[in-house]
Each structure stands twice: as C-alpha cells, then as structure tokens.
Fold this protein.
Amino acid sequence: DIQMTQSPSSLSASVGDRVTITCQASQDISNYLNWYQQKPGKAPKLLIYDASNLETGVPSRFSGSGSGTDFTFTISSLQPEDIATYYCQQYDNLPRTFGPGTKVDIK
Amino acid sequence: EVQLLESGGGLVQPGGSLRLSCAASGFTFSSYAMSWVRQAPGKGLEWVSAISGSGGSTYYADSVKGRFTISRDNSKNTLYLQMNSLRAEDTAVYYCAKDHHLIAPSAFDIWGQGTMVTVSS
C-alpha cells in the first residue's frame, strides 16, 4: 500500500496568514493526489484534485502543487471558516489511501 | 441538487451483519464510480470499497475483503454495502461518495452525511 504522510499534524495561524501543508507519498504517484477539507461533524469536501486543480466552487485562496512524491497545499489568506482538518489522498494505486490529516485552527 | 443520503447504520453485535444503502439524486448515477469511505471515532479517513458505474468492477480494502460486498442498482440510483462478520474495529461513520470518474475510484467530489455503525456486544 502507498503510505501518505502529512506535516504538520496541526497548526495555529492568524486570520490572513498564509498556511502551507505538505503531503508525502511513499512512492511516485505522479499527480494522482487530492485534497479534502473536513469540518467537525461534517462530511469531507473535495478542494483540489489531480494535485493542482481547484474543484468547482472552491475559493481561489486554496491551491495545490507538486508531483511524484511531494505535494503542497496552501491557503493564501486564512479565514475563520477555514478551521478544519485537511487530508491528502492518493489514487495512483489500490487501495486508495489518505494522509493522517492536518488540523488547522485560529491563533 | 446533487445529493447522497445514507441509511442502514446502527448497533450490531460482533459477528453480525448490516446492509448500508446510499440513495443518489441530482446526477446520472450510472455514469460514475461510487465508493464507501469510513471514519472511526476521532480518527482519519479510510477508503473501504468502490464500484464502477456499470457495477462490473469492484474494489476493496484488504481490511474488509471477503467480509463486505459493494453493489449498486442503477435503476434505483442506489448504492449498497453488505457488511458481514462485523468486528469492533469496523465501528465508524460510513460515508458514500461519488467519484469524478466512471471506472475506478479517483476523486470523491460528493459525499453523503454519513451513517454510524457500532459493533459492540
């Protein structure tokens, strides 16, 4: 199975800050990488697919980059409604696997 | 409006069975692969199983292979997960999710609200 790691596991930032989360795959997954946002008690929401494509309706402050084994997710200007846990997920191989998540809150 | 609505969760004893359903609306159900993803209490996301749009191809995580069966009825726009030989470690919220693509699971762009499955004596 492809193992996904994320760092940091949690972070606190101020409103307006730039926030960056990294995701690393245990082997080359090309650009087969997605990012999800999950707010407490809610279902996950797809934000970024194929490493860098913004899902329809998702604010442009969210972005993704990377390929191979190293990926980055960025919130350009953190907003109060962005408080959530963020997960990366690979779909290069079965089983599909998620990273352990990064919890983002407001400082 | 695109919507997924799960049902069928509940409390079941170890070794028991449960069937989850997921009713889809607002999109052409047969044109997309569908998946089940679960989340144990306080834990992360775990992909469980997927099925192609036609139902001809199915995929499972090793943790459920041989115990769970995914199926779909495209005439009823409904996805199912038959869960047998349930274990305590199967306790989780189970989400159904629509895929971006037709054949194999890729990006999960629409999620249901989830249904809780508790396996306990």
